[in-house]
# Entry
Amino acid sequence: MKKLKNFFGNAYLAIVFVFLYAPIVTLIVYSFNEGRGRKWQGFSVRWYEELFHSASIGDAVYNTLTIAFLSALIATVIGVISCIGLQALKGRTRNLYMALNNIPMLNSDLVTGLSLMLAFIAVGVTFGYSTVLLAHISFNVPYVIVNVMPRYRQMNQSTYEAALDLGAKPVKAFLKVVLPELMPGVISGFLMAFTMSLDDFIITHFTKGPGINTISTLIYSEIRRGIKPSMNALSTIMFISAIILLVLTNFSPTGSKTEVKDR
Amino acid sequence: MNENVIIQLEHITKRFEDNHNILDDLCLDIHENEFITLLGPSGCGKTTTLRIIGGFETPNEGRVLFEGRDITALPPYKRELNTVFQKYALFPHLNVEENIAFGLKIKGKTKDYIRDKIKYALRLVNLERHEKRMPDQLSGGQQQRIAIARAIVNEPKVLLLDEPLGALDLKLRQDMQYELIRLKNELGITFVYVTHDQEEALTMSDTVVVMNKGYIQQMGTPEMIYNEPENAFVADFVGDSNIMDGLFLHDELVEIFGAKFPCVDKGFGINKPVDVVIRPEDVDLLPPGKGSLDGVVTHIIFKGVHYEMEVTTPDGYEWLVHSTDMFPVGTKVSIHVDPFDIQIMNKPQSEDEEALGVDE
# Structure
């Protein structure tokens, strides 16, 4: 009886994973297809080679990574500073601001993207790299705050005063005592912001100008013109990178430590 | 100015946003090499006073003088005093050694100097060979010692302690009280200590400052505070006591619940209502009719050193009595109090004075 139960349990799990991963496996298989079409014409890495020779793909990868890195970095700085301000507020006002902070994360990307586009038009900025970067910073800040704030509230507030008491000026006290305490939250906030930015298509689509692409917008525009197997290769690389990033964040010493402490 | 006054608080008033005065025109002189304790219930302003001395709060009015210099506007990192915080506030990401070295490194001391100082401080707090431990590997008492070591390596002239023993269990707390007295004597510096524990205050201090509602109620040696409380609040807060309405008939005679008690106080007037304080250990129980006021034992608890009894007198008042003799419930007794054990206090007159009293 127990064995039967186990069997069905495992079978169910297997089916779930098949449905989840079958499409991705298909994609990966196709990326190694010699031919262009749906028919398997033998193993080849030619689409991967093409990737590295294409200037537009190179640009898109460069844009994606730099935007993800810069937007995550700037959002982290803004987010941490915001947390200090939020912590100084009284209970009810702070809750209100935290709610306001959470709304953009729940909000549809379409609305965020459209409104950012309209805002940029209203201000009269030329669309391009900088508008995408600004857009990404703005949607990344809430994720940083959500990650850092619990750490900040949990930490013993007197350590900062203790540092002042021992002769540290406010900035030094913050860098030497408060920031190291917040670090696990800061790192997870940064990584989350980084992945959100990497992953984004809709908001980038609305805020980018002509002639600039990130990986997601490039794939989208290429696919519209017909299937291009090099896009399969690019998607495969993105998927593998995501897995590596996931493994790194889960098994890095700071990552696992926070998990234990937060519980 | 007195020669050995190190800190002067001059007419300090601190208001919070709701215009409630947490401190009202507080004046206090702290002397060199003194163990002074600010004692009071929560919300009495004792911690605020300490934070004003430490520089973490700015008073709305008044000045703080340190060795005669006005330091009211000086930030904490420029003050020559150090604080031991309530919840230790050790830096959790630094080990014991790094915690203690924190202040010295900022001041740019040499490595050798810092190493010697750490050794000295750890020996002083009896925690040698704990240099490499992280704070979360230490017990509460050990963390407290490290917090003290971290403060004293900077050689402050004044050490501020904000309920440092509050989180420790009873036995440890008593041990630490002796430790602190020893430390203070070895260092020869001023300790300003904040607590709500009257026993702690009486045990360790040279001077006790009893505070309530932003006012200083009484200031003096532990003996003075205990034996001669100036008002009902102090009498009630420090130790157990019987506080009763009395009528001061004339010099050296007071009437309590219709019975006449000879006392040693003079100058309260004639037939004037007063507050009378009698400590429970000063109440002697005699056979009925032999004392000043008869009553019946209505309650008894064994407390180890003594019995704690309640004696109800005909008017319904329950006298708290501590005695090493046992009187079973129902025993008829008579209350006697030696004249010098009776403490007479004026009743609060104005509303402002009322605020000083026990209307909580």
About this structure: The two ends of chain A are 36 Å apart (CA to CA).
